[in-house]
Amino acid sequence: EDRRVEPRGALVVLEGLDRSGKSSQSSRLVSYLEGSGISAELWRFPDRTTNVGQMISSYLTNMSQLDDHTIHLLFSANRWEKRSLMETKLKAGTTLIVDRYSYSGVAFSSSKGLDIEWCKAPEVGLFAPDAVIFLDISPEKAAERGGYGGERYEKLEFQRKVAESYKALHDASWKIVDACQSMEDVEKQLQDIVLDSVMECQKGKPLSHLWS
Ligand code: NYM
Ligand code: MG
Fold first, then answer.
1. What is the dihedral of CA 23, 24, 30, 34, to 10 degrees?
2. Could you tell me the superkingdom of the organism this chain comes from (predicted)?
C-alpha cells in the first residue's frame, strides 16, 4: 500500500435548498481563505460556462424541455467534464469551495420520482468531498427570502420534496448549519469547518471517491 503523504487542497461542498445562502457564503469563504493565505477557488455546479452547462442553463430557464433522465445525466456530465481540472487543482494545493455537487444532482432528480440508486450511479468515481456543509433552512423560510429567480424547481411545493430528498441522502459526516442565523454567525461556523478540513488535507488525507 502506498503511504506517501502528499499535502493537497480540500474539496468542500455546500449544499442546501435554493435561497439557503450557499452562493453568498461560498464567496465569503473563498475571500476568508485567501485572506488567511490559503489558496482557494470558488466553483459551482451547474457550471453554465461549458457546452453541457449551456444546455443545462437553457433547461433551467425553461428555454428547452428535456426528459428527466436526460437532464440528470447532463448535470452529472457537467461534473465529469470538470473532474480532471478538479484533481489538478486539489493536488496543486488549492482548496475548492463548491456551491452544489452530486448531492444536488440526486436530491433534485429523485424529487421528480427518479429512483435514488439510478440517480447516484453516474456520480460513482467522482471525487468525494472532504466536507459537505448543509445550509439548513425550511422550504417556507427560504421562500420568504424572496428572489426565487423564476427558474425551474424554484417553487415551494417542489422545494419541500427536495428537502425530504436531502434528508434521505445525508449521512452523519455532513455538517448541518442552521441557515437562519445571521450571515456572520453562519460565516464563522463555516470558517471553522473549512479550516479543519484544510488542515486534514494539508496533512495528506487521501482523496477518495463517491459514494463513500
Ligand atoms: N441542480 C443542480 C440539479 O437539479 N442537479 C444538479 O446536479 C445541480 C448541481 O439546478 N435549483 C439544480 C438545483 C438548482 C438549479 O442551481 C440551479 P443554482 O445553484 O441555482 O445555479
Ligand atoms: Mg438557484
1. 160
2. Eukaryota
